[in-house]
Design goal:
Helix content of chain A: 25-40%
Shape of chain A: globular
Radius of gyration of chain B: 15 Å
Number of domains of chain A: 3
Largest sheet of chain B: 6 strands, mixed
Oligomer: heterodimer
Structural class of chain A: alpha/beta
Strand content of chain B: 15-25%
Number of domains of chain B: 1
Structural class of chain B: alpha/beta
Strand content of chain A: 15-25%
Strand order of the largest sheet of chain A: 2-3-4-6-5-11
CATH class of chain B: Alpha Beta
Radius of gyration of chain A: 25 Å
Strand order of the largest sheet of chain B: 2-3-1-4-5-6
Largest sheet of chain A: 6 strands, mixed
């Protein structure tokens, strides 16, 4: 069957057709649509057998639950944006030591150019770090079929497999041909050797030795799997090593009528890591004097390649300036790297100004910031530590309300550290979903030393930035705060609306002046999900 | 046949609905298609664009090279200008003339419109007024714009209309009729 699918959706359909039993994920651009697609197919009954697909509280709980499902012999998929890999790193790294029972595939969606992210880290480093195979598709059809291949590889080698995509792969749509005979889910089966899953030092050492020993087999599989392709060129003194979406840009430019002598270079397309050693050696044997590495993300392959080829072979790429050191690639920068002239085109228009994203009109975060800004002005040097979500936009005009934003949950603990250093008022602003993702443990730290902070939870009852997914603590935030140990009279709830401005300001003042840990919950439904709910109600 | 299209607008204006209809018609024609979309933070009232590529041959890149864009379809005039440095010398701009002002430093509208008019191949239409005249709601302004772009798309008018009908079919006959009317109004106003 043929379907028009996003790269993310192709991964999801590939996983379903590979006999997936559960997807575990926390929303994050550009990975969100993988889980949403599985949820949609599951809800419509377009799966052979029901699939577990409820959002997880964060990437670590997702990774661990997936490992538990794999332990029971079933196939599990974990999806996240690149920075989610940091959150689940402990579980991820150690899943390489335990190995897997049912197939376990971890999808990391990287965001070079930081379209919706705070950094552009390259998840292929994590694949190498954990010493497990990594697969990087170039197009939607590959995304579909290689997800199935990743599950096969995982079960064959008893290892988790990392599937790495980047923004353009995740969010680009094309026709995908899917199978008419999807695979059934695995039945329940216990691990053959339970010691594999007990990482006591004595057992872990043995497991680790097995993982190290498997490395040469992983390389051999990269060389023989058929997904890595080497084509000797008519002018083999030039070589190109390319992977992922970068392959498409290269082919686009080389098929252009003005393509130069690079058209005749040898090309090695890498889809499965670790790098296929013999294919690289063949490229050198065939006479490559220069190998240009065209890869999306950080110069991972470029660095590795330098240690793999003789010093007489020049390795060029992002590190040498042939391609930009930062940001996502485009056909244009590949064209420049190959020494081709840019196409004729009009000048950039002088009138155009930037149009940054902004909080929606009618959004509760707006009223929250309006009140907070007014109260903050009453103090000599307030510090407001922000967090990850729509409300990060409070850093921009017209609010200029926050003084920090680092990673999920950092608002609470940075505010605590600042208070420990003597700052007052020290205020954290965090959304409900981010709070349950990574804020609760920080709040416990605050309570334990009765840190002089106000944690302002801007609760819109959803995970807003990524499009309105269920938030893990909806309806239970007060209980969570009480349970962590915040005193009941210092857990306050306000409704962020212009008519409540004076009340909100007064509550904020009282809690700022209270010498200890307090929580103010500003609760009003996200305007986007509200519109959706009203529309559904009308139907 | 090969058409490289940039769809432009402001987050929330509905450029992806235009892409959906073009995609529906293109696939029915047996064309290859690639469409790179923008999801995430910039959808919150920021500038958004989508690279849509149609071809009778397989398509490699998800992104269009600078200078290789045949057509910019924009729901906002300044947003049309944002991508002119991707336009081929004989490329077309089809844009709404209605500004979306959600920034304090929006340039002088007349200058923006003059810059659009400076391109030999342009269609500049008040798509909101045309939607109203056609008896369609304001949300159908994107379908008026789609209609105006049909002559440059390389897909027959009738096949595009059939695409609109299929895309909106599950919303009922009345919705199909208003959207077809909106597309026809744009097509008539485009005059090419």
């Amino acid at each position: 069957m043929k379907h028009l699918l996003l790269g993310d959706e192709a991964i999801a359909q590939g996983a379903l057709d590979a006999g997936l039993s559960g997807v575990y994920a926390y929303p994050g651009t550009p990975s969100t649509e993988i889980t949403e697609y599985i949820q949609m197919q599951n809800a419509k009954g377009k799966v052979q057998e029901s699939v577990f697909c409820r959002w997880a509280t964060n990437e670590k709980t997702a990774m661990e639950a997936a490992l538990g499902m794999s332990y029971m012999g079933k196939r599990a998929l974990v999806c996240m944006k690149h920075v989610g890999m940091n959150v689940c790193a402990d579980a991820f790294m150690n899943s390489a030591i335990t190995g897997v029972n049912g197939g376990l595939v971890v999808v990391a969606a990287d965001d070079p150019s930081m379209h919706s992210s705070q950094n552009e880290q390259d998840s292929r480093f994590y694949g190498k770090f954990a010493m497990i195979p990594t697969i990087e598709p170039s197009n939607q059809q590959e995304a579909y079929s290689m997800t199935q291949a990743a599950f096969d590889l995982s079960e064959k080698m008893h290892t988790p497999v990392l599937l790495r995509v980047t923004t353009r792969m995740a969010h680009s749509r094309a026709v995908v041909e899917t199978t008419d005979s999807p695979r059934k889910q695995n039945g329940k089966s216990m691990p053959e050797n339970v010691q594999h899953f007990i990482l006591l030092p004595a057992f872990a050492k043995k497991n680790y030795a097995e993982l190290v020993a498997a490395q040469s087999e992983f390389v051999r599989l990269s060389e023989t799997c058929g997904m890595n392709r080497y084509v000797k060129g008519m002018r083999p003194e030039r070589g190109i090593l390319t992977c992922g979406i970068a392959y498409n840009y290269l082919m686009e430019v080389l098929h252009h009528k003005d393509a130069n002598e690079w058209r005749d270079a040898s090309v090695l397309k890498v889809t499965q890591y670790p790098l296929p050693k013999t294919m690289i050696e063949q490229m050198v044997k065939d006479g490559a004097k220069e190998i240009m590495v065209i890869e999306e993300g950080q110069p991972v392959v470029e660095e590795l390649l330098r240690g793999m080829v003789p010093s007489s072979v020049a390795v060029t790429g992002r590190l040498t300036g042939a391609l930009p050191r930062m940001g996502e690639l485009s056909p244009d920068c590949v064209r420049t790297a190959l020494g081709m002239k840019t196409l004729e085109t009009p000048e950039v228009d002088s009138l155009v100004v930037s149009r940054p994203p902004a909080l929606c009109q009618g959004c509760g975060h707006r009223d929250m910031y309006a009140a907070l800004n007014e109260v903050a002005r009453e103090y000599a040097e307030p510090r407001i530590f922000g967090d990850i979500g729509c409300y990060t936009l409070g850093a921009l005009s017209p609010f200029h309300a926050i003084h920090a934003c680092v990673e999920m949950g950092a608002s609470v603990t940075m505010a605590k550290g600042a208070a420990d250093a003597g700052q007052h008022p020290s205020i954290a602003v965090i959304g409900d979903s981010t709070f349950t993702h990574s804020g609760i443990t920080g709040l416990l730290d605050c309570v334990n030393s009765n840190a002089n902070v106000v944690v302002l939870i801007s609760d819109n009852l959803t995970t807003g930035m990524t499009g309105g997914q269920d938030s893990a603590g909806t309806g239970r935030l007060e209980q969570i705060c009480y349970g962590v140990g915040v005193e009941k009279e210092h857990v306050r709830v306000v409704v962020p609306l212009p008519k409540n401005m004076e009340e909100i300001k007064q509550v904020l003042r009282e809690e700022i002046d209270y010498k200890g840990t307090s929580v103010v919950i500003a609760r009003r439904e996200c305007i986007q999900t509200l519109k959706r709910h009203l529309k559904q109600a009308k139907k | 046949m090969k058409k490289n299209i940039i769809l432009a607008g402001v987050g929330g204006q509905g450029i992806l609905s235009i892409a959906t209809v073009i995609g529906e018609a293109a696939l029915a024609e047996g064309l290859y298609l690639k469409q790179a979309e923008v999801h995430g933070m910039s959808q919150r009232g920021g500038d958004v664009q989508s690279n849509l590529r149609l071809s009778s041959d397989p398509i490699m890149s998800d992104l269009i090279e600078k200078g290789d864009v045949d057509l910019i379809i924009s729901l906002e005039p300044m947003e049309a200008l944002r991508y002119v440095s991707y336009l081929a010398p004989d490329g077309w701009i089809v844009t709404s003339s209605v500004p979306f002002v959600n920034i304090p430093n929006y340039p002088e509208l007349n200058e923006v419109l003059d810059h659009v008019k400076a391109f030999k191949n342009h269609v500049l239409l008040d798509v909101e007024a045309l939607a109203k005249e056609a008896g369609a709601p304001q949300q159908a302004a994107n379908m008026v714009l789609l209609g105006a772009a049909i002559p440059m798309l390389g897909i027959d008018h009738d096949k595009m209309i059939a695409g609109v009908q299929r895309v909106f079919a599950r919303k009922g006959e009345a919705v199909v009729a208003t959207n077809v009317a909106a597309v026809e109004a744009g097509y008539a106003a485009s005059k090419h």
